Amino acid sequence: MLRQIETLRADLRLLAEQQTPERLAHLCGGQALGGQIELRYWYQAVRVDWQTLEWSDQLSGAALSVYDQALLLYYLHTANGTSLTDRWVSFRELPGGGFYHQAFQGYSGDLVAKAFSNTPANFPAACQKAGGTALGALGEYAFAFKPLPKIHLATVLWPGDEDFPTRAGILFDAASINYLPIDGLALIGSKLARRILRA
């Protein structure tokens, strides 16, 4: 992963010769301030230094994990300013997602379904604790999340009965592929599942 991070930084340095921090901040939904781009990542303020391309927590100044560095660099690298659609799609419906859908479901929606199969009433509180807001249009057990300014996710739980098992899924705004590649979307979707389970 360290090699991928350095490759991304090299690509972004080339991009920096063509675009200002202000322009890139606009494309990714952040704000350019004093040679840095600031944005919200999982409801925390983070920033990237435009010279070093190192991400850190805005309050403490601590460097983010290698995983988070990579994901946020991919976000900067991919962001093209496309408007969000407010239309929810499954991972399978994203360009390139069909091939990985079964694996993604296994480490995201299936884990959530298993955790709440016997206690679906606990699902709303867990989602709210993880930062979600109720999404009534998709049902009683549906919550929306905003891990990045231009990446919106949702999770839905369908409680089971004697005939059907409990199911759960992670959904994406249809424009998400304009902000992360498909493997990045898989990572952020699995992180949502883990956040709900921890909550």
Core attributes:
199 residues; alpha+beta; five-stranded antiparallel β-sheet; four-stranded antiparallel β-sheet; 9 strands; 23% strand
Topology:
Layout: H1 2-16, H2 21-28, E1 31-33, E2 36-41, E3 44-49, E4 55-57, H3 66-78, E5 88-90, H4 101-106, H5 109-116, H6 123-129, E6 133-134, E7 142-148, E8 151-158, E9 167-173, H7 182-198
Antiparallel strand pairs: 1-2, 2-3, 3-4, 5-9, 6-7, 7-8, 8-9
Helix pairs in contact: 1-3, 5-7, 6-7
Description:
This protein has 199 residues and is α+β, with helices and mostly antiparallel strands. It folds into 2 domains: 2-78, no CATH class; 88-198, no CATH class. The chain is built from 7 helices and 9 strands. Helix 1 (2-16) runs parallel beside helix 3, helix 5 packs parallel to helix 7 (182-198) and helix 6 crosses helix 7 (182-198).
The stretches of 5 or more residues where confidence is low (pLDDT under 50) are none
Write down the Rg.
18 Å
Mind summarizing the main beta sheet? 5 strands, antiparallel
Structure annotation, total helices: 7
Question: Which series of helices and strands comes N to C?
Answer: HHEEEEHEHHHEEEEH
Strand order within the widest sheet? 5-9-8-7-6
Chain-averaged pLDDT: 94
Number of strands: 9
How many discrete structural domains? 2
Overall structural class, as computed from helix and strand content, comes to: alpha+beta
Taking the alpha carbons of the first and last residues, their distance comes to 28 Å
Coarse shape: elongated
Helix coverage percent? 25-40%
What is the percentage of strand-forming residues? Answer: 15-25%
